[in-house]
Write a structure and sequence with these properties.
Strands 1-2 form a two-stranded antiparallel sheet. It contains 16 helices and two strands. With about 325 residues, the chain is an all-alpha fold. Helices cover about 70% and strands about 0% of the residues. Strand 1 and strand 2 (about 120-125) form a beta hairpin. The chain has helices at about 15, 30-45, 55-65, 70-80, 85-110, 125-130, 130-150, 160-170, 175-185, 195-220, 225-250, 255-260, 265, 275, 280-295, 305-315; strands at about 120, 120-125. It has a single domain, classed as Farnesyl Diphosphate Synthase. It binds geranylgeranyl diphosphate.
Length: about 325
């Protein structure tokens, strides 16, 4: 949906039209993203109703339903379809990924972490509900994500579902988001952060959940080892490209476009890809990573077009 209500969370038509879509010239990326996003929003809305104690459910929904590109769920569904699975079997995991991602944004914005006031175009969760409730809203979303996919996934054998649960846990734990965040916090204000430390931070903080999104989608459909490895490599490349573009946008985009405070990295003296390479080289590296990601999937022909187009979207996005 190209919504006027929440400009921070929509996919800009112009971005998509100017994207490099050579792999998908006949593919309606705008329609695809908008249809998938609506589907995910509807499922998320139903997943967490407001019951007693209302305050915590309202706080969880406040951030979860504030929009966002819904990139992780869309990647999960696309990978499941690539591997021959259905949208229905991927949707609960897709929603769980968005719950986990939203949880990480709530905690990342806390005063003890990035201390931010604005997210997805709205006051951050702790600004609206207080730190205590924001921490609990994150905890509630994280725990419920696992319950939700375990209880609601149809047509998937239990042992496959167990692999998905393990993969997600690995992406969130100290082996993933948590580990990346710790090194990020330790690196703040440190003048000489190396490229390998920067890569570690982002492969874990941002890349792990993006990779899990694609890999769990393929796992749900019972993909073979070669496809899982190709999906993994595709996702590692788009994950890094995504973060490089995120760093560039922190400098070039406005707070209104981003829906969060712009220029935060410079202000916090954070090491970023543009600080190491400059903006033009960062953009070139991101494009190269997207091409490498797409090359992993060319053997799947037209079946891979949505994932190819999603990779293009990552470098073309403006928010
Ligand atoms: C997971 C237990 C647990 C703790 C969290 C706070 C933390 C540990 C990790 C931080 C993870 C984080 C916030 C990484 C940044 C990832 C990133 C680039 C977010 C922006 O993603 P978009 O652009 O956002 O997809 P939208 O709003 O579109 O969904």
């Amino acid at each position: 949906m190209i919504s006027a209500e929440n400009p921070y969370t929509t996919v800009s038509v112009q971005d998509l039209l100017t994207a490099n879509v050579e792999h998908s010239s006949a593919f309606d990326l705008i329609g695809y993203l908008s249809q998938r996003r609506d589907m995910v929003e509807t499922a998320l809305d139903k997943a967490i109703p407001v019951v007693y104690p209302e305050k915590i459910y309202e706080a969880m929904r406040y951030s979860l339903m504030a929009g966002g590109k819904r990139l992780r769920p869309i990647l999960c569904i696309a990978a499941c379809e690539l591997a021959g699975g259905s949208i229905e079997m991927a949707l609960p995991t897709a929603c769980a990924l968005e719950m986990i991602h939203t949880m990480s944004l709530i905690h990342d914005d806390l005063p003890a972490m990035d201390n931010d006031d604005l997210r997805r175009g709205k006051p951050t969760n702790h600004k609206k509900y207080g730190e205590d409730i924001a921490i609990l809203a994150g905890d509630g979303l994280l725990a419920y994500a696992f319950e939700y996919l375990a209880v609601h996934t149809p047509q998937v054998p239990a042992e496959r579902l167990l692999q998905v649960v393990a993969r997600l846990g690995h992406a969130v734990a100290a082996t993933g988001l948590v580990g990346g965040q710790v090194v990020d916090l330790e690196s703040e204000g440190v003048g000489d952060v190396t490229l390998s430390t920067l890569n570690f931070i982002h492969a874990h903080k941002t890349g792990a959940l993006l990779e899990a999104s694609v890999v769990t989608g393929a796992q749900l459909a019972g993909a073979d080892q070669e496809m899982l490895e190709r999906c993994s490599q595709y996702a590692r490349n788009i994950g890094l490209a995504f973060q490089i573009i995120d760093d560039v946008l922190d400098i070039t985009a406005t707070g209104e476009e981003l829906g969060k405070t712009a220029g935060k990295d410079l202000q916090a003296q954070k090491a970023t890809y543009p600080s190491l390479w400059g903006i033009p080289e960062s953009q070139r590296q991101a494009h190269h990573l997207v091409e490498q990601a797409q090359a992993e999937l060319t053997i799947y022909g037209t079946q891979a077009i949505p994932l190819m187009a999603l990779a293009d979207f990552i470098t073309a996005r403006k928010s």
